[in-house]
């Protein structure tokens, strides 16, 4: 847990002196502080630790001084000022302990622990200034007393300074830097994002666990901006952002929850990260947010769970956490349409290949809920996809009683292209019995499927042709296809022998069933079916050879009859 400390930064007095003067003072005070510390006899363990840290200061100060930009960087001056304060405090406490004139043991022990922490921070910050290359940025002093910034603060050097302040100093200084960064990001996010480095990302991830809710909110706001911009996602995950994000979803403020779940929504898209979210216990907080969150948080949580459900091996874990009932409820009563669609896609993913999960969704009332959802003016793909996955797991009687056929017709008429494809696929799965084929034909699905053969997408044409070929095995449906003037030309177009056309075998099957009609045969010949079929026969497409022979015999008879 990151703890908050006092204010870190240069005072007016510090800025009046040069960096060289501050360094000279520090170099003079280090041996004094060491001498005083070694004279102390009380609290030997604590003073031994303080001495070891004081002994490391000269080399860190030397590293700072040897840098060519040492005297120009405001952060360097601030750091020297902080080191001087620590040295003065060390001398003062050592004198008290040597004389053993202090108010109480607990009091002085607390002061010594505080000094040890400050020295740790001094050593850490000196190392960071060198390691990150911040001393190479010759910057001017920046006003961090509030959120307002002058125009020049959007320069790269000032942005880098703000980012460096996330890595060094006490918590209050980091808080002011966060305020400034949030304001800059609102106005000029490209400049900030272009100079973000991995160290800055690591610092932000650490600040997500600050004790101050205000700091956590500012930090998650910046992280959310980074994630939404598509920047630094891999760095964020590798630096361990997922556990604190999940904790914020679980118990953060309303603002922090919203930003955290939006971040998880985006981060959960890669399968590896989705698995990691499950491994870190992220499923239950996301499910709870689907039940209790506001409209934005609910939609983002549903989308994150939808992304996670796309990974087959975690679906059982999702089910065990109770996702089925929650997604069904969202499809039925989600605040936003987006929440409903994400929930429908999640149900589609869950039911894609697991019969136990299909039965669970049906048992929870999912089938009825999905069918009711399809009554909307523009049915979308994922709800129909979930329906397609479920239809094989219930009886024909149940499907009909729930209004399956009117909804399928509605989707074929008004749904998106993806929804229409899923509807045609659902028809393929349910028309295993003559009774069901008869009912589907009587519902006027066939003309809609024939029209779907004109779709630009090959996969849509394929499933439409497959549905028609299955329905045509019933004689009355075959007559319905014969009566449709678009059936033959659309089917002949699907005889294209190119490898991209995967509908050709179903087109051959349909045309074979139509070939008993003289009118249909003439139409096939006039639209060039024979040329296509010869090529398909060479490719050993089932039924192509027999159909081309039948058409050629009919063509010869037609020629003789003319003579």
From TrEMBL:
Keyword entries, A-Z: Repeat
InterPro entries: ARM-like (IPR011989), ARM-type_fold (IPR016024), Armadillo (IPR000225), DUF7032 (IPR054296)
Domain of life: Eukaryota
Location of the DUF7032 domain: 25-134
Name the record gives this protein: Protein CELLULOSE SYNTHASE INTERACTIVE 1-like
